[in-house]
Amino acid sequence: MRCLQENFGSRPPDLLVGISPSLGPCCAQFINYRQELPPEFWPYQIRPDYFDLWRLSQDQLQAQGVRPEQIQLAGLCSRCQAADFFSYRRDRHTGRNATVIALRSADE
Ligand SMILES: [Zn+2]
C-alpha cells in the first residue's frame, strides 16, 4: 500500500482490490501455527488449526483505508477448488500466479 501511495500517489479509498484464488479457510491448516504465523494472525483461527486468511487480507486492506465495497474476493481455494492455479499444498511444487494492474490517468 505504501509503495502505491509513494510512487503513484494512490489513495486507498480510490483503489479497487481483488483477492485472487488462494489458500482458503477450508484448507489453511497450520498445525504449528504458533511457530509459523505471527500472533496478529491468531485471531483468524476459525476452528482448531485452521485460519481464514481471506478475512485477514480483507481486514488488512480495510485497516489501510480501502473501502470494503471495493474489495472483491474470488472466494476460490487454490488447493481444493481452483485446479488451474498453483497450490503448493496440493501439488508439493511451486508455481507462480500473475496479477495485472492498470493505472489510468484521471484525464481518460
Ligand atoms: Zn480448500
Task: Name a few traits of the molecule.
4 helices, two-stranded antiparallel ribbon, binds zinc ion, single chain, globular, 108 residues, 4 strands, 10% strand, alpha+beta, two-stranded parallel sheet
Question: What does this molecule look like?
Answer:
The chain is 24% helix and 10% strand. It has helices at 2-8, 33-36, 53-63, 88-91, and strands at residues 17-19, 45-47, 50-51, 71-73. A hairpin with a 2-residue loop joins β2 and β3 (50-51). The longest helix has 11 residues, at 53-63. It is globular. It starts with a helix and ends in a 17-residue tail after the last helix. The protein binds zinc ion. Residues 24, 26-27, 77, 79-81 line the site of zinc ion.
The biggest beta sheet is recorded as: 2 strands, parallel
Mean pLDDT over the full residue set: 91
How is the quaternary structure best described?
single chain
- N- to C-terminal distance: 24 Å
What's the shape?
globular
Cross-sheet strand order for the largest sheet? 1-4
Write the element-wise H/E pattern from the N-terminal end onward: HEHEEHEH
Structural class: alpha+beta
Integer-rounded radius of gyration: 16 Å
Q: In percent, how helical is the residue content?
A: 10-25%
Uncertain residue ranges: none
Total strands: 4
Bound ligand species: zinc ion
Strand content is 5-15%
Number of domains: 1
How many helical stretches? 4
